[in-house]
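User: Earlier you gave me the apo prediction for this protein. Now I'd like the version with adenosine-5'-triphosphate bound, so I can compare the two side by side. Same sequence as before, with the ligand SMILES added.
Assistant: Got it. Here's the input I'm using:
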Amino acid sequence: MTHNSILEINDLSVHFGGLKAIANVSISINKGELIGLIGPNGAGKTTLFNAITGLCRPTGGHIFFNDKDIVNKPAHYISRQGLARTFQNIRLFKTLTALENLRIAYHQNLHYSILAGILKTKSFNRGEKAAVEQATEILSIVGLDSYANEVADNLSYGNQRKLEIARALVTNPKMLLLDEPAAGMNPIETKELINLIRKLRTEFNITIFLIEHDMNVVMSLCEKIFVLDYGVLIAQGSVDEIKSNEQVIKAYLGEDL
Ligand SMILES: Nc1ncnc2c1ncn2[C@@H]1O[C@H](COP(=O)(O)OP(=O)(O)OP(=O)(O)O)[C@@H](O)[C@H]1O
Ligand SMILES: [Mg+2]
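And here is the structure of the complex with adenosine-5'-triphosphate:
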């Protein structure tokens, strides 16, 4: 592991019965990098994120986050190390407001004693105030301040995706995994998303690893791209290297790029 590396995946495999969803993949990401992960449907992209975040158990290999081996560690442990994610299928509490969704994430992160909540102790009230303050600040970072009291289900698809990012930020992550953040967004929302992701990296120093089918998003944001095909890492490199890689063009990008 190099000094600067934050995520180091060595020879990782995830098999579902006979299906090799991830086959001997090795990936290294440095602190502060903005990295893309692309590949055709079913290539294993989400499975890789699930393995990294403790949502599925690898068949073999190692994953080091900040020098700690996180393979077979529970998801909440991995999250507390500073690794947060969003989901391809939005997972919000639909009937709760934007602010309430973030407050819940805040409390899940702090692990208050239930008793403190019931008794409404001073420390609980202080925590509650801090939760609302932090949630409000994060809503403004992602540009959702005017939607704080809107029920999540009433938000546009694009804004629900932003709220998912906001929820991931509540845990104060060192690294953020985004699974198709631009999916379902209109061109204006996509442009805002690109700016937001840039801001998270430059202003908040968060390392970002993102899965995306929208090549405009990937090519304009990422300094390095990994390409998966049938669970195999077929290429890695700069935008230009990936665009001109024969194997990638054949597997995924098509002849017209
Ligand atoms: N829990 C599971 N059990 C069995 N098979 C699974 C499971 N999760 C994923 N798979 C299979 O593993 C392969 C990789 O799926 P994955 O969702 O990781 O692909 P993906 O690259 O994210 O695709 P997409 O771009 O469509 O989101 C697929 O063949 C999928 O059907
Ligand atoms: Mg996926």
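For your comparison, keep in mind: Residues 45-46, 88 surround magnesium ion (ligand 2) (CB under 6 Å).
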